[in-house]
Amino acid sequence: MRETLFNWLQGRIAGRRCLDLYAGSGALGLEALSRGAARVTFVDTNARALAAIRTLLEEWRADAGAGETAHAEARRFLAGPARPHDLVFLDPPFSAGELAGTIAALAQRGWLAEDARIYIEQPAAAALPALPADWALLRTGKAGAVGFHLCARVADPAAARTTEQNDARSEP
Hints:
The chain is α/β, with parallel strands linked by helices and 172 residues long. 34% of the residues lie in helices and 30% in strands. It has helices spanning 2-8, 27-34, 47-60, 74-78, 99-108, 157-170; strands spanning 17-21, 39-44, 67-71, 85-90, 112-123, 135-143, 146-153. The longest helix has 14 residues, at 47-60.
């Protein structure tokens, strides 16, 4: 899944600001940093996981400020002062039932840059929560019991969907 995701995002990571909500091991945010993201904020409730991420950032000698961690619940974090991000990773615990509320908080509070991309993981059998009017579902995939989706914040969701689908058909 990760390889597919980063193939989808190719050319959209370097120099971008990323938010890894429900970071866990931090794999998605760390991958973004390794591909040139300017900054990644890792948010999780597990202090040990965040300590491990900080250790990796130090080992990598990531540029000062390139990676920061926040020990918080995702929705509580999103209730704080908003900073727009270009790329957001949403991989909440499947049993938590937080996805719809987190999507709403992201959309309503100014956390997304104008052309942000939002990656969502959820159970493959679950319906994707309703997306905000200015989001377009660009791509979707399935790996075993996991469904994964790439959305974009756009001015015209219908036009974005058509452009991305045409781009996807032209890929090797």
